[in-house]
Design goal:
This protein is α+β, with helices and mostly antiparallel strands and 216 residues long. The chain folds into three domains: 22-69, no CATH class; 80-112, no CATH class; 142-215. The protein is 19% helix and 31% strand. The protein has five helices and eleven strands. It has helices spanning 2-8, 40-53, 57-60, 90-94, 102-112; strands at 83-84, 99-100, 115-120, 123-128, 135-136, 142-151, 155-158, 166-176, 185-191, 196-202, 207-215. The strands form four sheets. It has a three-stranded antiparallel beta sheet, with no helix packed on it. Strands 6-11-8 form a three-stranded antiparallel beta sheet, with no helix packed on it. Strands 7-10-9 form a three-stranded antiparallel beta sheet, with no helix packed on it. Strand 4 and strand 5 (135-136) form a beta hairpin. The termini are far apart.
Amino acid sequence: MDVLDEEVIKKLDKAGDASNVVNAFSQAGTRTNLTSGEKLSTSLGKLMKWFADFAKVAFSGNYADLTGRPTIPAGGIADASKVIDDIDDIAANTQAGYMAGALALKKVNSDLGGYEFDTINGVPSYKAGADAAWVPFKREPIIEKASFSWAYSPSQTFPAKEGYKIVGLYADITGINSQNAVNINFGISKNLAAGRISISGQTYVNIMGAFYCIYA
């Protein structure tokens, strides 16, 4: 009975006190999740592995204990005092390391008056308003040529090009089918709504040449 009494007191009931229970376990080899129904020693070994793998910063909470910390680029914002909300701020316009805040960007956007900026066909461009044509910041002029051969009344219409204006229009006469002096009259008409422009000649003789239209 004495032996039985010693063994019975070792039994732990569901509502018993487990504060002095001793459990032997070893750290698990890999981090795996807990599984219902497994031995207590197995569960504690898994937990020990997770705690062992925590970096120092998990316990200290110090930024200095982080590894692989990102490097702040040169000229980056070091403190909130370098975020400016006034685009006329002297320091921000003469020193490196400042960044425009929301109010400054709002002022810039207001000053632009609805202008939009984008890259169209590889060319940086701008436009004023949603329905306006895109205008490249820098581009070479376009010259369109329309040849005519021995025409009595040559004519040609040059269409509009998005983002371009017609800045030049001329005729080059390379041949006249007459032995006498000839007056050649040319007229120009334009359609402002469509943006196209037309040129026509009145010669009374056949001529050969080309019309040229310059877009810029």
